[in-house]
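Newbie here. two chains, one complex. Structure please?
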Amino acid sequence: MHLPAILPWGAADGFSKQMLLVILSVVIIATFFLLAARKGQLVPGKLQFAGEAAYGFVRNGIAKDIIGGKDFMKYVPLLFSLFFFILVNNIYGAIPIIQLPSFSHVGGAYVLAGIVYITWIVIGVKKNGLRYFKLATVPSGVPGYILPIVIPIEIISNFLVRPVTHSLRLFATMLAGHLIVMIAGSGIEYLVMQENLLLKGTSVLVLVGAIAMYMLEALIMALQAYVFTLLTAIYIEGALHADSH
Amino acid sequence: MNQLIISAAVEGQSPLLPNPWEMGVVFAGFAVLMFIVVKYVVPMFEKTFAERAEAIEGGIAKAEKAQAEASAALEEYKQQLTDARAEANRIREEARAEGAQILADLKEKAAAESARITAQAHAAIQSERQAAVVSLRSEVGTLATTLAGRIVGESLEDDQRSARVVDRFLADLENQNAGAAK
């Protein structure tokens, strides 16, 4: 699973396959969308249509629907970049030979969740001033005697747990999916090597299970990219409209 | 693959501890991607969307304008048609009235003419009759005088001579009549 580093070759630390894949993902996304958007024809060709559909999915399906209003366009680039960055890096896990979702290493997930965490706090403070922290932690319409319990819970859930769950959700699903597929692969390999024919035959069952799991993982890879982006949009929306929550 | 799993175990490191180099690469990669997206991808897509929206809205506006123009033209044609019908009716009425007028004039003129001709004829007849009466009167006088002269001038002893005189007178009269007829 942890492939050896490319530079220096085979070392535990260094420039890993993971890093190469992350850089490759940036190249893939940038190339695809630059090519798709470049012509900008009113009647789009196939490539432009695909690019517009993908862009429109994030722009209208996530940013406009969740954030809405007049100023959702400001956050489209962040949501768009997040969605396709995570999507491509996850889909790596479903491509044979590569078979490594970048976020099965926790670092990348921390980085992205951290960027989002800082972003929504900055947005909240810019929009509401320092009053934002009160708005975000003191829910309105709650009886005064419950507040001593509610406020710490809100602080913990909003400012401490939120970035952790945001990053670990992505990391854990990718790692788990990766592990399951890999273990199934190893299991098949192990069973096929057996002398006993019956035991060898059971490898077919594992293969069927592994294919099903592989399909499920592919679905989860796309779903997690969507969930991560959707949560980002919800956090930003919450920060923008803190006074009405 | 067995080795892979083993190597994962051998690392002995919590999977929650990140590799700082990987974090750096992800951060740098994401920053580059964000830059490209903010600088190029989003503006290009938005420009296309705006142009497309404008094209569609412009098309709708154009169609509405054409529609309005067409209905205005139709209205105008209808108006013109109504005008033309009214004009035709008016002309027909005028022609009818004029025709009647002409007919009446002609009739009047004909009646006047016939009256004139009749009057002329009457006058002519009257004058001719007058002339005839005058000439007859004078001629009858002359004839009577001549006859009387003749009768007085000739001897009326024998019947033969008297008969001859009357015969000559009648022949003269006839000749005179024939000359007058000519």
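Moderator note: Chain A has a mean pLDDT of 87. Chain A has seven helices and no strands. Thread marked as resolved.
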